[in-house]
Q: What sequence folds into this?
């Protein structure tokens, strides 16, 4: 999953090319079987769950849908989710840009190891991502007694939720930008230096325009995960209604109280966010592809 | 630290410094805290917690269902990637975009949606129940959720390789008299195989740690349908921090080994297909 770099390869292939050439064409019955089986799998495993969210949300009518969303606890969950994403995404964006600059523009020992470490949060279970902060900052944690003395609350409070979210969304921007900037090389920046540009001028005028699609791509995926994270946040939140409940946690509480229609109403907002994310993602891929084509044959 | 060759570009110290500090504070130090915490246990205590019957049952379910889900995804993911690259059909762009739904849809939402679908009175459950197939609140439900979660990993690792695949190879095979199936098995599959295995491993790694989409549909019956991440949550809710940490260390060690294996697989894919960064 080299992200955008591989995404650039997608649109190029025109399927009809394969279907007209006898050497790359399967017999019709095989084609229909493969197509039928894979689309059935797609419909059952991906399409139906998405449809089910909206079906269950609207089953009791628009009025109860609206009531579930305008409930004060739901509104406070929405606010907390937005706040969390508003902190976690910019932090990981800054980190991603810094890491990509250091890794793509310079040679140093241990670079591959550093890239592996940056990917580490992806291979850690979200539950463990929550646990590590409980062990650091919880009442029985390493810094727990010191924090309690100074009246700082991190676990079962908003800072813990933000920290856990930052952890699970840590690699998103960096892993899009690193391969992209590595592929683009250093010549343009070096030319700018020779022409007398300062570091920040190079960054704003040369590097940023070159990486903008990868940046947007990383940010929207980072944001989707930040707003939707459940496991890690669930461990550190304490589930205090109106205070430390994010939208996914609110969905869980409503569901466990058998308020299914309300649970699905809040869930449908998150499903909408997912669909917007996928639309923007496809659009960015299309724009990046177009820019890349224009550059190779203007 | 200094760059190997002196570069005319500025900002090496600043950006590498920011990277290392942020990485240490957010990821490395908290992860190290888990391993340090286990030192409060003697080895026999650690072993007793990590191999308690209920925990062993959770490993069997988590690893077994994750392997099976990754295998299902390898088969159907390869077919889907093939269909998306090679065939034209209506709605293709929508299918292509929605493949990433499990990445974008919050896991808790996926969890309650799958439960609603497969419950006895659900859209799918009502047809499965008369056949004697129960999915929700059974180990089978865990498999369904993990299959949902893992699908994009296989499709998105195999798809670009199929896109880049040179049709000249297939044309050569056909002109030498190979059957279509022989061409697929002996020309196409060997090229795609490392990517397929990488996708399988990525789906497996994600499934083992998955929590949100599983707990709603699993039923969480001790010894039957409890996944390993849930065991950590259960211990935490009982304020048994050493117990939660011991299980976490087992899972983390496994994840790190798998991460190394995946890195190796990706290098193999790059070598096999000549795509190196």
A:
């Amino acid at each position: 999953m080299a992200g955008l770099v591989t995404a650039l390869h997608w649109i190029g292939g025109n399927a009809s090319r394969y279907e007209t050439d006898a050497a790359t064409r399967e017999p019709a019955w095989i084609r229909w079987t493969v197509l039928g089986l894979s689309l059935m799998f797609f419909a059952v495993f991906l399409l139906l769950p998405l449809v089910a969210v909206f079906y269950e949300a609207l089953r009791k009518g628009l009025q109860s849908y609206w009531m579930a969303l305008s409930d004060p606890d739901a509104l406070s969950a929405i606010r907390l989710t937005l706040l969390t994403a508003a902190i976690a995404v910019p932090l990981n964006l800054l980190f991603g840009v810094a890491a990509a600059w250091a890794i793509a523009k310079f040679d140093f020992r241990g670079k591959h190891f550093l890239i592996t470490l940056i990917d580490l949060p992806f291979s850690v279970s979200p539950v463990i991502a929550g646990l590590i902060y409980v062990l650091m900052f919880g009442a029985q944690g390493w810094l727990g007694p010191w924090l309690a003395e100074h009246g700082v609350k991190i676990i079962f409070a908003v800072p813990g939720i933000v920290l856990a979210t930052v952890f699970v969304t840590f690699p998103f921007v960096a892993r899009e930008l690193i391969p992209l900037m590595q592929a683009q090389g250093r010549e343009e920046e070096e030319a700018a230096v020779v022409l007398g540009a300062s570091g920040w001028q190079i960054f704003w005028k040369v590097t940023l325009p070159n990486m903008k699609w990868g940046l947007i791509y990383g940010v929207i995926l980072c944001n989707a995960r930040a707003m939707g994270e459940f496991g890690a946040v669930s461990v550190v939140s304490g589930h205090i209604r109106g205070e430390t409940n994010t939208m996914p946690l609110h969905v869980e509480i409503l569901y466990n109280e058998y308020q299914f229609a309300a649970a699905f109403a809040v869930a449908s907002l998150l499903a909408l966010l997912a669909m917007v994310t996928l639309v923007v993602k496809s659009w960015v891929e299309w724009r990046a592809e177009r820019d890349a084509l224009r550059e190779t044959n203007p | 630290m200094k760059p190997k060759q002196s570069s005319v570009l500025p900002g090496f110290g600043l950006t590498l410094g920011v990277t290392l500090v942020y990485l240490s504070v957010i990821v490395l130090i908290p992860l190290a805290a888990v391993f340090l915490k286990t030192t409060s246990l003697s080895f026999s205590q650690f072993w007793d917690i990590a191999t308690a019957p209920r925990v062993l049952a959770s490993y069997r379910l988590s690893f077994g269902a994750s392997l099976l889900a990754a295998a299902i995804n390898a088969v159907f993911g390869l077919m889907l990637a093939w269909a998306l690259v090679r065939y034209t059909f209506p709605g293709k762009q929508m299918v292509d975009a929605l493949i990433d739904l499990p990445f974008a849809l919050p896991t808790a939402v996926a969890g309650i949606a799958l439960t609603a679908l497969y419950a006895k009175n659900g859209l799918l459950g009502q047809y499965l129940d008369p056949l004697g197939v129960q999915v929700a609140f059974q180990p089978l439900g865990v498999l369904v959720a993990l299959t949902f979660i893992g699908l994009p990993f296989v499709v998105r690792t195999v798809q670009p390789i199929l896109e880049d695949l040179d049709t000249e190879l297939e044309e050569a095979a056909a002109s030498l008299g190979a059957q279509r199936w022989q061409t697929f098995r002996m020309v196409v599959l060997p090229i795609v195989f490392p990517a397929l295995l990488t996708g399988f491993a990525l789906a497996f790694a994600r499934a083992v740690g998955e929590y949100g989409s599983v707990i709603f549909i699993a039923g969480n019956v001790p010894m039957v349908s409890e996944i390993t991440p849930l065991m950590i949550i259960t211990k935490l809710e009982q304020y048994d921090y050493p117990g939660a940490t011991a299980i976490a260390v087992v899972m983390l060690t496994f994840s790190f080994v798998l991460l190394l294996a995946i890195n190796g697989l990706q290098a193999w894919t790059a070598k096999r297909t000549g795509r190196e960064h």
